[in-house]
């Protein structure tokens, strides 16, 4: 039975406690946290996992912790709760950024290239042919990952590409000069 939204057994427990402890305040918040064992999950270990690979799944975290703490079993829901409340990690849509993009040497090389052609007599509207090649990106990963709350959702990736089909195209002001499709053989 329920009395005023409180279970019958709870009211019996409170009545017994009022009789045995006259100074007990029934209006203070009732929690059982004092009897709980301290969490054995390792926050630094989990944070390191997500710093190295933001798209780590909960199952991978459970497997990693089970290997680190032998004879220890975990539930995914417990780990999820710990990750979001104790580690303060939130799920965000990741923006992929190549590692080489923020490399100072690469930034300087790009700047030097632009300055070299800016100071030349090259006219990009008349005497220039642009050649481009597209390939397949082998760094496909889940688009969501866990990062610290308030941190930007940027994950760096290696810039390697595996080219199975290449499309080469030369474009000038008069239009497409040449286009070619190459299929790489696996021989």
UniProtKB/TrEMBL annotation:
Note the superkingdom of the native organism.
Eukaryota
Gene Ontology terms for molecular function: nucleic acid binding
Q: Which InterPro entries match?
A: RNaseH_sf (IPR036397)
Q: What is this protein called?
A: Tc1-like transposase DDE domain-containing protein
């Amino acid at each position: 039975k329920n009395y005023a939204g409180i279970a019958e057994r709870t009211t019996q427990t409170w009545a017994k406690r009022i009789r045995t402890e006259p100074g007990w305040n029934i209006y203070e918040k009732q929690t059982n946290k004092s009897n709980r064992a301290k969490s054995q999950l390792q926050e630094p270990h989990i944070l390191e996992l997500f710093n190295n690979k933001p798209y780590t799944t909960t199952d991978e975290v459970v497997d990693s912790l089970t290997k680190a703490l032998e004879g220890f079993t975990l539930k995914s829901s417990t780990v999820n709760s710990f990750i979001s409340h104790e580690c303060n990690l939130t799920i965000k849509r990741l923006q992929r950024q190549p590692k080489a993009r923020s490399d100072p040497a690469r930034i300087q090389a790009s700047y030097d290239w632009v300055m070299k052609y800016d100071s030349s007599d090259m006219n990009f509207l008349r005497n220039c042919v642009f050649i481009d090649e597209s390939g397949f990106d082998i760094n496909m990963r889940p688009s969501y990952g866990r990062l610290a709350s308030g941190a930007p959702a940027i994950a760096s990736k290696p810039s390697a590409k595996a080219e199975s089909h290449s499309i080469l195209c030369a474009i000038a002001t008069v239009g497409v000069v040449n286009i070619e499709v190459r299929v790489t053989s696996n021989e």
